[in-house]
Design brief:
The complex is a heterodimer of chains A (316) and B (223).
Chain A lengths: L1 H7 L3 H22 L1 H37 L3 E5 L5 H12 L4 E7 L1 H12 L2 H5 L9 E6 L6 H12 L4 E6 L2 H42 L1 H9 L4 H44 L11 H29 L4
Antiparallel strand pairs in A: 1-3, 1-4, 2-3
Chain B lengths: L1 E9 L5 E10 L4 E5 L6 H8 L7 E6 L2 E2 L8 H6 L1 E4 L11 H12 L3 H14 L15 H13 L5 E5 L7 H16 L3 E5 L3 H5 L4 E6 L2 E7 L3
Parallel strand pairs in B: 3-8, 3-9, 6-7, 7-8
Antiparallel strand pairs in B: 1-2, 1-4, 4-5, 9-10
Classes of the chains: A alpha+beta (316), B alpha/beta (223).
Chain lengths: 316, 223
């Protein structure tokens, strides 16, 4: 009988794994045992993580938008006034044949004047003019490879050298400004994320510190019967891990809800601008970062608290 | 088994807990430690359990020089030394079984082994039927026996008891002492601090008397 039970003894590693699993579950149970106060701590952690996550997603969206606009950048080629429509058409075809150009569109003097009359409200005044003062304009859309700011600028300078061209303009600068602004915001969000991450670290650290104080006598007794520091630390580390993990999951849910609330109005606005822009959800990387980063923050916070406070407890 | 070589312990407050104490207890021996409160009994036990370090001199337990023990080795030393306290030091939010199992859990024993050994220890102190009870529902004598079961569950070679019968009536005290005698009979080295002179005089064992941190008498009581 006795030898049988000895044969059934699980080996060292499975005991170790089981003990860890047991500790993890016990720590989770302890956390759920006190839903009100621990829930509040979790909510604070979740908000601290959700805030930069949501902001990041929004700004990332704006950045995506400016990329899209940059791709659609166009060059306006103002021809000299002595170029007539047939010549202009020929130039447009010549430019369209260039490798880096996707297509061209000619806006003739007459069309431009019509449009100007319509839109400016100076219709009657313009009728008084003998000649049409507007030039023929060719609007050039670079192909995809030449849509980058650098390539588009190169194309611009190439087109400027054409004899018939009076001036050429790249409608890109404001896109670049927008991009610079979004870059600034992204950096701001990263700084905010770092600060709030440190906040999470301290929140978990403080929670674990209180827990250690609360279980002071238990720790003392465990030390008396020969528990190693590692053994005593373990449940607290798991607790920190759970705080981080549950807080991170709650943060992801919060972010998704926030983005969902925003997606309606965003679609409405983009509809008004004839754009089919829709809010992008959390990217895979951002999701993984939050999902795996938050438990690490929790673990770090717990470690921070334990290093200082466990040593101070000695049995007497 | 236990040896003190010129051990002194001076606290930060200036109070001298032990001064220049030397004695030895052989393996399997049983000894009582007596003296007024503040005579240094607890200090001496605390030095053996490595709850404190001596200011001067050397403490040997189980052929191990405790002065050379690093902080990370202390837990392993404590697993070889069972300690029993006047106030029992039980976890009040755990069952009797879990309390007794603590030293084994801490040492990483397998569940089967824990069950077997805890049952054996509880059986020894006569509390097997109370394994599912909470400590606070037990009487003082029963709580002390839970404390004893916890101290012996991992079969330490040395057992230390600090005023184990301090709060018990003479009848229960005698039972507890008989329990200790039983452990001694199977080879456990015992050192018991107590000021219950009447009780120990009836037991014809070695008695070490402390006064103001010094050993003032060391010998066998005779009826």
């Amino acid at each position: 009988m006795k030898s049988k039970t000895r044969n059934e003894k699980p080996n060292f590693i499975s005991i170790w794994a089981m003990r860890h699993a047991q500790t993890a579950v016990t720590a989770l149970g302890r956390l759920l045992l006190n839903p009100l106060s621990n829930g509040m701590t979790l909510a604070v952690i979740a908000i601290a993580i959700a805030l930069p996550t949501t902001l990041y997603v929004m700004i990332d969206n704006v950045r995506g938008l400016s990329d899209e606009w940059q791709g659609a950048s166009s060059i306006s080629l103002f021809l000299k006034t002595d170029i007539d429509e047939t010549q202009a058409r020929a130039i447009a075809q010549r430019v369209a044949a260039l490798d880096s150009v996707a297509n061209t569109q000619l806006i003739t003097k007459a069309q431009a004047l019509e449009e100007f009359k319509e839109r400016s409200g100076f219709g009657a005044a313009l009728d008084l003019l003998k000649d049409n003062p507007l030039p023929n304009v060719i609007v050039i859309t670079p192909n995809e490879a030449s849509s980058t700011p650098m390539a588009a600028k190169q194309l611009l300078s190439q087109l400027k050298t054409l004899r018939e061209v009076d001036s050429a303009q790249l409608d890109l600068e404001w896109v670049q400004r927008l991009e610079a602004i979004t870059d600034l915001f992204i950096r701001g969000v990263l700084v905010l994320a770092a600060l709030l991450g440190a906040g999470v670290l301290l929140i978990v650290g403080n929670t674990i510190r209180l827990e250690v104080q609360h279980r002071h006598s238990e720790i003392e007794i465990m030390k008396l019967v020969g528990a190693t520091d590692r053994f005593i630390r373990r449940p607290f580390l798991y607790e920190g891990l759970w705080y981080g993990l549950l807080g991170g999951i709650a943060a992801l849910i919060m972010s998704i809800i926030a983005l969902w609330l925003l997606s309606g109005p965003v679609e409405q606005i983009s509809g008004l601008y004839n754009s089919n822009f829709a809010l992008d959800w959390l990217s895979g990387e951002a999701f993984l970062l939050v999902f795996f980063g938050s438990p690490l923050l929790g673990l770090g916070g717990a470690l921070l608290a334990l290093i200082r406070h466990l040593r101070m407890i000695q049995p007497d | 088994m236990i040896r003190f070589d010129n051990v002194s312990k001076r606290y930060a407050t200036g109070h001298e807990g032990l001064s220049n104490t030397s004695f030895a207890i052989e393996e399997g021996q049983m000894a009582f430690l007596t003296g007024h409160s503040g005579a240094g009994k607890s200090t001496l036990l605390r030095l053996i359990g490595c709850l404190e370090r001596p200011t001067r001199g050397q403490v040997w337990v189980n052929d191990r020089n405790l002065n050379k023990l690093s902080n990370s080795q202390i837990p392993y030393h404590r697993r070889d030394v069972g300690m029993i306290f006047q106030d029992h030091r039980l976890l009040h939010d755990r069952t009797v079984f879990d309390n007794v199992a603590l030293p084994l859990v801490v040492a990483g024993a397998s569940p089967n082994e824990i069950k077997r050994r805890v049952n054996a220890a509880l059986d020894k102190v006569g509390l097997l039927h109370k394994e599912r009870s909470m400590p606070l529902t037990l009487s003082g004598g029963e709580q002390q026996r839970v404390g004893i079961a916890r101290a012996v569950v991992s079969k330490p070679k040395v057992l230390l008891a600090d005023e184990p019968t301090g709060n018990l009536d003479p009848e229960l005290s005698k039972e507890i002492m008989e329990l200790f005698m039983e452990f001694n009979r199977v080879g456990v080295t015992l050192l018991i601090a107590t000021h219950d002179i009447a009780l120990i005089l009836s037991m014809s064992q070695r008695i070490i008397k402390l006064d103001k941190g010094r050993i003032v008498a060391d010998g066998w009581a005779r009826k």
